[in-house]
Amino acid sequence: MAELLSKRAYEESIAKTRDQRMEWWREARYGMFVHFGLYSQIGRQEWAMSVENWDVKEYEKLADTFLPEPGAPRKWAELAKKAGMKYMVLTTRHHEGFSLWDSKVNPYNSVNYGCKRDIVREFVDACHEYGLKVGFYSSLMDWHHPDGWRCAFDTEARRRFTQYIKELNRELMTNYGKIDILWYDVSAPMESWEGWDSLELNQMVRGLQPDIIINNRSKLEEDFSTPEEQITAGDKDWEACMTFNGISWGYVDSVQAAPYSYNAQGILRMLCQVASGGGNLLLNIGPAPDGSVPPEAVGPLTQVGQWLSENGAAVYGKKLPTPCHGTPSAICSTTYDGEKLYLWAKITPPNGEIALGGFDTPLKSVRKLSDGSPVEFTQKGHRIVLKAAAPDPIANVTVYELTFDGEIRHEHCSDYPQLHGGYQHFVK
Fold first, then answer.
1. What distance in Å separates the CA atoms of residue 193 and residue 213, rounded to the nearest whole number?
2. Which residue among 247, 299, 335, 409 is buried most deeply as judged by most CB within 10 Å?
């Protein structure tokens, strides 16, 4: 390993390559999270071992019954591709401590128990088959390892445990070719990057995978932040990671989860939110014990993929925070790529018109994004009125591409609309 850099030198070094390394991710905007492990068999969420106070030896018995069907990761990747997703992130080892690969560091793994297969290898191969970027989730916390809690107060335990975590990640970064994302989770019980030796750990990772991007959960800022179960725009690169049902990351009964799960419109609303804030969406599925995709996720994800095949320009690629303060209309939202403004109409009004206020820039043209057909409009002062197209037949979310004559200037609505008369008017 090369000489260890100081924190400052390390951060300066990765900053120089960040734009190049992040370019594909900033174009992708949409990926699939996969939470799969022994907890999938319990069906009571992925933290069951902890929150239910399972005895470690009793929990270990689940390993012998971990029997996902051959080819399960290929089904995940096939669906991700159909859904319009560009990358996948798999829980290679969740907090329960069970590794889904042929680990020499951790014998408690899927090759020694249960299915006796390297699920990580199958996942990587499936991603390559479907042209998806490869992401590895790697827990820092471990409930199975005897030093996983002692490390908080025992110096020797801390040395052993951080070395264990380092060697697990060395295997992942060495044995599967090019890896695009390292997605750390839960830096507990230590509370600082010093406690985790994250500076050394991540320099080792980057020495093995120079192009990799790393999230901020090892207590170092690294490349991107990961707000969880909330869509909150960050000042730098960010990715909202979301469950499919607001209940669990791991598998829960599909029939009971279905009423809580997202439909296509709910997924599109999230995509609009993240794109309007310049972020990404990492949307989770929790496969069933046999590795199959929960049926309540298949339809909505497929429908969104069909919609994106016609309207993807509103999501993919460079996206900047929308220049429209607030929302142009109660029934619309916007995304923006620096040139085009994409108006997402969730509802088509009964009179067939969509009215927008607050624009102080001349509007040159409008077209329906899905088919490129021109859309009639008028502009008087700050008010723009579009002749609405028929609602989108796939997901009822119709996108209009607006081209303005110059930089978009927009003033959010006033409680007293007539006050807009004090500004310069452009009349179409």
1. 17
2. 335
Residue 404 contacts by C-beta under 8 Å, 6 or more apart in sequence? Answer: 341, 359, 361, 362, 363, 364
pTM: 0.95
Distance CA 256, CA 275 (A): 31
With b for 16 or more beta-carbon neighbours within 10 A and e for fewer, the 39-58 pattern comes to bbbbbebbbbbeeeebeeee
Reduced to 3 states (helix: H, G, I; strand: E, B; else coil), residue 44 is: coil
| Residue 230 burial by Cβ neighbours in a 10 Å radius (0-12, 13-18, 19+) | exposed
Secondary-structure percent of the chain, ordered helix, strand, coil, rounded to 5? 35, 20, 45
**Average pLDDT value for residue range 210-222:** 98
Q: What is the mean pLDDT of residues 187-196?
A: 96
**Both structure tokens of 117:** 């297969």
Interacting residues of 5 by C-beta distance below 8 A, sequence separation 6+: 13, 199, 203
Measured on CA atoms in the order 170, 174, 176, 181, is the torsion positive or negative? positive
Q: Where are the beta strands (DSSP E) in 129-180?
A: 133-139
Whether 5 and 13 have beta carbons less than 8 Å apart is answered as yes
405 contacts 359 by C-beta, under 8 angstroms = no
Q: DSSP class of residue 391?
A: P
Query: If you average pLDDT over residues 266-281, what whole number do you get?
Result: 96
Q: Which tokens belong to 262?
A: 């997202």
pLDDT 10s digits, 62-119: 999 999 999 999 999 999 999 999 999 999 999 999 999 999 999 999 999 999 999 9
Q: Which amino acid is at 33?
A: F
What six digits make up the tokens of 428?
Answer: 């179409």
Cα–Cα distance for residue pair 311/135, rounded to 1 Å: 26
Structure tokens at 245: 């049902």
pLDDT value, residue 428: 38
DSSP class of residue 247?
S
